Every structure is written in C-alpha cells, then in structure tokens.
Amino acid sequence: MATAVAAMVVAGAAGAVAAEPKGCRTVEGKPRFVVDGAVARDPASGLDWMRCSLGSRWTGTACEGEAQTYTLDEAEAAVKALGDGWRLPDVKELYDLLDDDCGKPPADVTAFPDVRESDLEGAGAWTSSPVGLAELWFYVDLGSGVADGHSRGFKISVRPVRTTRPVRPGR
Fold first, then answer.
1. pLDDT for 13-51, tens place per residue?
2. In sequence order, what are the residues at sequence separation of 6 or more whose Cβ sits closer than 8 angstroms to the Cβ of residue 4?
3. Contact 103/116 with Cβ under 8 angstroms?
C-alpha cells in the first residue's frame, strides 16, 4: 500500500478515531470519516460504511482475507443477512466515497484500508441502482474512480452501508 496511511487523531467518542489520509476531503477542517472498529461513519451524510468489503473482516488494525465477489442477487442476499440495517448503497452514495483529493486510489484508504489503486474493474462494488438500459446495474470502482454498469450475473464485491440518521434535504 502506498504511504497513504495517515496519523490517526483521537475524536471525542471512546474507541472512535477520525480518519484522513493526507489530502483527502475534510469537513470544516476535520476528517470526513470517523472510524470506530469495523465501521467508517460519515457524519455529513449520516451513513455508516463497512470498512472492509464483504468476505474480508476487520481485525482491529486491517482488513484480513480477500473480498468475495457476488452476483447482484447474491449481494442483495448477503447484505440482507447482515441485518442491523445494512444494505447495498445506491450509486450516488457509493460514488460519493470517491475523492480525487486523496490521490491514487481516489478514496480514503485509512477509512477503507482494503481499497487499492486499480485499473478498470479492479475494485468494483455493487450498487442498488439500475442503469436503465438492458438490465444493467451500476457499480463503482473505488480503486480507479470509475462508475459503470454490469448485468446482475457479473461477480464483483460489496461495500455495505446503513443509514445512521436522516440525511439532510438536498442530498
């Protein structure tokens, strides 16, 4: 992994830390994501994200194991089985994780340590959003910054999300 590992700053809550690789977007001068164990919370959007793609797990210091790939039907079943409000993100939510200010990869690798710079389709994750053409659904590749469409039978990874509070109007 590139030297995008930044110093972690203790945030107010016990066990929670603010995550921000050098150059990534901040909110009012503070890191965008607050990480608490296996979850990266985005206070501005009101969303919790799993720090590791499904199939790998948070060990307390890193994502361990390989991310699994799923068809869209398998992905929907896998996030439903997680319970506790976890779901597939829509394309806007997942695309919002992209941050060109982070460099390469264009995502916060402190908050999402299993994201690596990739060529097209190297780190794609399903969304719940249909493209609107020929039975395609959007995926977003956090390693390359690309969003595109695939058929439901294509196998790619899953980055679960859940809503932690109502999202502000206009989001």
1. 344 555 545 578 888 888 899 999 999 999 989 999 999
2. 21, 22, 102, 103, 109, 110
3. no
